[in-house]
From TrEMBL:
Residues 2-70, 77-145, 148-215 form the BON domain. This is Osmotically-inducible protein OsmY, contains BON domain. It holds the Pfam family BON. It comes from Rhizobium lusitanum. It comes from the Bacteria.
């Protein structure tokens, strides 16, 4: 696929996504590498734009340069963001109460603490990323390992086999402590994303190193 066709496919996919303002996002493509520019009103929209582009067939890489334009003073916003984030985390039943701490500096939210499952770490990030005023998010929440490396490897491989969209024999799994390394080759970005998702679904995983090639 040539770059001009790929660029148009990306623009069409962004336009098709109702949760973002595609008119404010610019796209350039060079040898399959998509560069995103422009601006959006929230960190959530910025993440969504990147996620949308990743699923377009033919995209080999992404350079993400989208800006977040937030109005108001940071001094007032930081305190307000932190207060609202703490309340939202307390209300989220997927996040253990008191397990996650919040720090906000110039609109950038940093989450710390310890949880047992990856979905709990993800839930904490999902809870705060849509808050007004958030310009960035660092999810530093740690996951406490509770299973052996062999058990983790087997669970991930079993998850691959259950996923109809994955050719499990094309992906190898290596486990060291709470870190998982995925190797191999798949046909599409969606397959690679599915492999990552399966690896993260196992309790105790703190890091997934994705070395899967797409092509």
């Amino acid at each position: 696929m040539d770059d001009i066709t790929l660029r148009q496919n990306i623009l069409d996919e962004l336009e098709f996504e109702p949760s973002i303002d595609a008119a404010s996002i610019g796209v350039a493509v060079d040898n399959g590498i998509a560069t995103l520019t422009g601006h959006v009103s929230s960190y959530s929209q910025k993440e969504t734009a990147e996620r949308v582009v990743k699923r377009v067939k033919g995209v080999r890489g992404i350079a993400e340069e989208i800006e977040i334009r937030v109005f108001g003073t940071y001094e007032t916003e930081d305190e307000d963001i932190a207060s609202r984030a703490v309340k939202m985390l307390d209300w989220n039943v997927s996040v253990p109460k008191g397990a996650v701490q919040v720090k906000v500096q110039k609109g950038w939210v940093t989450l710390t603490g310890k949880v047992e499952w990856q979905y709990q770490k993800n839930a904490a990030a999902d809870t705060v990323r849509d808050l007004a005023g958030v310009v960035g998010l660092s999810n530093m929440v740690e996951i406490t390992p509770r299973v052996s490396a062999n058990d983790v490897k087997k669970r991930i491989e079993d998850a691959f086999k259950r996923d109809a969209g994955l050719e499990s024999q094309r992906i190898s799994v290596e486990v060291s402590g709470g870190s998982v390394t995925l190797k191999g080759k798949v046909h599409t970005w969606s397959e690679r994303t599915a492999a990552d998702r399966a690896a993260w679904s196992v309790p105790g995983i703190k890091n997934v190193i994705d070395q899967i090639a797409v092509g």
